[in-house]
């Protein structure tokens, strides 16, 4: 059933000149306008979400780059110790430290990209009886291993973009302490 509403200017509902407007037509027009407004709001919200995700991915990529660079510097120091002492255990330790920064995987929410072998190597057992190292070097190596192990865990904790740069800073400090112990 169509209901007609009167228009201004003394027109009646049965004006044959087409002056009457159907309520149904008005409701359809209002619904179409509301749907168009909602579609526009949805597009704006989607664009904002895409922008926020892109910013988050950029922060994560930068944090992972900082962590990889720090792990590389730490690996170089451990490799220098391995060369000085002739220790194949320390050479493996250096590779495991490097892997903690190099192999970070933001998609791996279980291990963060860290292999089980690297976890074992960095467990500190290699440091228990390593000849040719000072006590301070062993302490710095233990700190390097612990910090390197923590890097992939930031991914599983859900906030690597904030924590990785901080851990990288601490890793650099541990390496600096180890270099001072060597000198």
Task: Briefly say what this structure is.
This protein has 183 residues and is mainly α.
Describe this structure in words.
It is a single chain. The protein is mainly alpha-helical. The chain has a domain at 60-182. It is built from five helices and two strands; from the N terminus they run ββααααα. The chain has helices at residues 23-85, 88-102, 116-121, 135-157, 160-182; strands spanning 4-5, 21-22. It has a two-stranded antiparallel ribbon with strand order 1-2. α1 packs antiparallel against α2. The protein is rod-shaped. The protein starts with a strand and ends with a helix. The model has no long low-confidence stretch (mean pLDDT 84).
Question: Mind sketching the topology for me?
Answer:
Elements: E1 4-5, E2 21-22, H1 23-85, H2 88-102, H3 116-121, H4 135-157, H5 160-182
Antiparallel strand pairs: 1-2
Helix pairs in contact: 1-2, 1-4, 1-5, 2-4, 4-5
């Amino acid at each position: 059933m169509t209901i007609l509403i009167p228009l201004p200017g003394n027109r009646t509902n049965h004006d044959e000149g087409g002056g009457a407007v159907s309520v149904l037509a008005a409701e359809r027009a209002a619904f179409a306008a509301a749907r168009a407004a909602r579609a526009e709001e949805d597009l704006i919200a989607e664009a904002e979400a895409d922008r926020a995700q892109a910013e988050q991915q950029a922060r994560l990529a930068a944090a992972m780059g900082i962590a990889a660079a720090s792990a590389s510097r730490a690996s170089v120091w451990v490799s220098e110790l391995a060369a000085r002492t002739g220790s194949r255990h320390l050479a493996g330790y250096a590779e495991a430290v490097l892997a903690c920064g190099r192999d970070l995987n933001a998609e791996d929410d279980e291990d963060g990209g860290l292999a089980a072998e690297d976890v074992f190597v960095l467990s500190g057992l290699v440091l228990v009886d390593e000849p040719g190292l000072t006590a301070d070097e062993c302490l710095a190596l233990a700190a390097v291993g612990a910090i390197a192990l923590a890097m992939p865990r930031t991914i599983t904790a859900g906030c690597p973009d904030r924590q990785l740069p901080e851990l990288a800073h601490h890793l650099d400090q541990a390496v600096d302490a180890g270099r001072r112990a060597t000198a």
